[in-house]
Design a protein that fits this description.
By secondary structure, this protein is α+β, with helices and mostly antiparallel strands. The chain is 48% helix and 19% strand. The protein has 14 helices and 11 strands. Strands 6, 7, 8, 9 and 10 form a 5-stranded antiparallel beta sheet that branches. A 4-stranded antiparallel beta sheet has the order 1-2-4-3, with helices on both faces. Strands 5-11 form a two-stranded parallel ribbon.
């Protein structure tokens, strides 16, 4: 068999396999002979059918089966020997002139190749690492929310100033149908807020979404609409009231402090503020880290341009999965996944360039930390080393788990490398400023 690669461009090639008669005729003849004792043809006893008739009845199908076996095995071995870095899997090309009756058969397969490129991990970037500070305004607001949450709830017959109003926002055209509870002080229009006063359960208030809240992002919470819609959404919605409550704020005393944080952990309002600040900024640090990594990924993708075999991958996407995609659906899927594919290739290249490897101790340490975090979520704050090591040993005895955890360790090392190389500028911001930066506003 003759196999060759024909380059179309840097990321697209065609593999051409030419199968001569001698590569399959022996196996076809063997299959024909095996078929003869079992062949049934009208007018002949079973097992007494002439070979020529057996070949006529079964030969074509047997030839197709045997040639396909030969081609599949040859293609698999060829791809292994050539060590090709493929994107997707080979796609057979349709040849209008192909005929199974020919003795010498030619098959062509399109392949998409991962691009060759180098990445500059030391390139200067404008990536920012945000340090989010819980300022006094946020702390005061959080304390007010705590007092409200742990205070006494009193059902009301009609809306009065300071009440919370529960109900459902509806706009059928936009698919809005979301039950929520609103604090009237969240409404940007004082006249609209005042219009709620005196309303009762069952009453309906109509309002427009444009400028409805002081912060447009509140539409995401209260109306359950995506971020892409919040700034331009300008439609009327109805709000049907189904509950009105007043709140008697809880006292800031030791009983409340102990309920929140445990006995004696917090003993004053200043302690309370300090604890809230600590917990909030710890949570903010996680959000900041997530944004940092997203920004680093965007920078690396933008700073490392390379060609992908898009047309090939769109055709390939039509053939994989349980549901076959139309060309339009495959195009949408490709566009959705292209960024992830580009970063995956960049990540792999950085891994090779930086010679990042993991050893068993890395894997064991990562698994141990993950188990301790998981146990903490279920209230086991101080497990013994022996308990953790026992679970680690059990987890690492499972090869599937080892593979999955190894990938996570490599990803963690890669992300740390990217963060170091990106050399981000640290910027101190409030949470509101961080949210604005997160949405590029």
């Amino acid at each position: 068999m003759d196999i060759k690669r024909v380059a179309i461009d840097a990321v697209n090639e065609v593999i051409v396999l030419t199968v001569p008669h001698m590569d399959y005729k022996g196996q076809v003849a063997k299959r024909i002979n095996e078929k003869m004792p079992l062949a049934t043809v009208k007018g002949f006893r079973k097992g007494a059918v002439p070979k020529a008739l057996v070949e006529k009845q079964y030969g074509a199908a047997i030839k197709v089966e045997e040639v396909n076996k030969v081609v599949a095995l040859a293609l698999e071995r060829y791809l292994q020997s050539e060590r090709l870095n493929l994107l997707g899997t080979p796609l057979p090309k349709v040849n209008e002139n192909f005929s199974w009756s020919d003795e010498e058969l030619t098959f062509e397969y399109e392949i998409g190749l991962a691009p060759e490129f180098e990445i500059d991990l030391d390139a200067k970037s404008n990536v920012v690492k945000y340090k989010i500070i819980a300022d006094d305004a946020m702390l005061d607001a959080q304390i007010a929310r705590i007092q409200k949450q742990y205070g006494k709830i009193i059902s009301q017959l009609e809306v009065a100033k300071g009440n919370d109003v529960s109900g459902t926002f509806v706009n059928e055209d936009k698919g809005i149908n979301n039950r929520t509870t609103i604090d009237l002080e969240e409404l940007a229009d004082a006249k609209l807020a005042k219009s709620f006063i005196g309303k009762k359960v069952g009453d309906v208030v109509t309002m427009n979404t444009k400028g409805l809240f002081h912060d447009a992002h509140k539409l995401m919470d209260y109306l359950n609409v995506p971020h892409d819609d919040v700034h331009d959404l300008e439609v009327d919605v109805t709000f049907t009231i189904d509950e009105v409550v007043a709140h008697e704020p809880a006292e800031l005393n030791q009983e409340l402090f102990d309920k929140l944080f445990g006995e004696g952990v917090v003993t004053s309002v200043e302690d309370l503020k300090g604890k809230i600040k600590e917990d909030a900024e710890k949570h903010f640090a996680t959000q900041s880290e997530q944004k940092l990594m997203a920004d680093v990924q965007d920078f690396l993708i933008e700073n490392n341009k390379f060609e992908l075999p898009k047309e090939f991958l769109v055709r390939w996407l039509q053939t994989v999965g349980e549901k076959k995609l139309t060309p339009e659906e495959a195009e949408i899927e490709y566009n959705r996944s292209e960024k992830g594919l580009r970063f995956q290739l960049i990540e792999g290249k950085a891994l090779a360039q930086s010679n990042i490897q993991i050893n068993f101790e890395d894997l064991k340490s990562f698994t141990s930390n993950a188990i301790r975090q998981q146990m903490a979520q279920y209230g086991q704050m101080n497990p013994t080393d022996a308990e953790v090591e026992s679970i680690v040993a059990r987890v690492l005895s499972n090869q599937e788990e080892v593979k999955k955890l190894s990938e996570q360790v490599v990803a963690e090392k890669m992300l740390q490398l990217f963060k170091e190389k990106a050399n981000p500028t640290t910027k101190e911001v409030t949470y509101e400023q961080f949210v604005a930066a997160m949405y590029n506003e």
